Model the fold of this input.
Amino acid sequence: MTRQSGNPDLWKDNDVELFFYAVQTRKFWQIVVNDNNAWSSQTDRKAFLKWDPMPGLRMKTVRNADSWTAEIAVPLSELKIDGGELRFNLCRERNIKGENAEYSTWSPLAMLGNWHDPDNYGTLKFME
Done:
């Protein structure tokens, strides 16, 4: 089953997930994009109940015979970057019929526990 945009279970599809966390403002975003050109996003790190569209987010996916690509444009103004730093992680779920799901993550520490814990994310530093 391939879910459509706005579905909170989109993460169960072939997908990529982007996690952003601004430490000083405690602003959190999770963006989920699947291979069917659908997306969801949420903001509340503690309850994870507020699935809201991120204003200004643009994305497009393209499926090929044995792969897919995603282009995602995230508006920096929504991320509430503070002090030029932002906690970040990127995860992927790959589902192939008849096989176990494959999971991967940019930050190896995220594999040790909760993928939603910003303490396990890498740090992006923004320069002028």
